[in-house]
Amino acid sequence: MTRGPTLPAHRLPYLPKPLDAFNAAPADEARALLLHCLDSLQWCRRVADHRPYPDLESLLAAADEATYDLSPDDLSQALAGEALPDLPEDTYSAAHMALSAAHAAYEARFGHAFVIYLGDTHPDESLDRILEAIRSRLTNDPEEERVIAAEELRRLARGRLAACLRNPAGNPSGASLITPVGPP
After folding, report:
1. How many domains does the structure of the chain reveal?
2. In CATH, what number is assigned to the domain containing residue 96?
3. Residue 118, domain member (yes or no)
4. Which residues span the domain enclosing 109?
5. Structural domain includes residue 11
């Protein structure tokens, strides 16, 4: 039995990977995306200027290094752009008051927002973890707390950046990745 002519293979349109889109985006658009991960212009410039990255781990390593190199002014700028993590909607009002009071005490002592990475914390445990951490860290001297806050910022930036590039549709920052048109 002879078969008729075969149809040409169906070619799917090119859909760039998020890292490819990040690498190919204009510098100002890459920096804008990065600002959603960490509010430091110096950090954003440094990470964006070292593109292209061969893989996500290389990008995350560069982001870590850039975070470690933040000057005190850059760190202050990044801390100023942070806020407490959102609590689950069903959190009772007394918990909100306790958190507000603890955060106010923290800000009065250290002069910046309390930052904590909650990436590995179950949402039901986030309030307890935040309150425990604020109370514990209130006993730190200002320089020790600045080092801890910088480490938490690094972890936050790394988590946000990984989330942006691993799952752009579920991007918690709301930043969009530029998708270049055309073949790879």
Report:
1. 1
2. 1.10.3330.10
3. yes
4. 18-170
5. no
68's CB contacts (< 8 A; 6+ apart) are 154
Question: What are the start-end ranges of the H helices in the chain?
Answer: 18-24, 27-35, 41-49, 56-68, 72-80, 93-110, 126-137, 142-166
Token pair, residue 38, equals 């960490």
C-alpha 142/C-alpha 106 separation (Å) is: 11
Question: If the chain, 184 residues long, is cut into consecutive pieces of 10 residues, what is the mean pLDDT of each piece?
Answer: 56 66 94 94 96 95 94 92 78 82 94 91 87 95 95 95 76 41 32
Q: How far is CA 14 from CA 1, 90, 162, in A?
A: 37, 43, 22
Spatial separation of the C-alpha atoms in residues 5 and 10, rounded to whole Å: 15
The pTM (predicted TM-score) of the whole model is 0.78
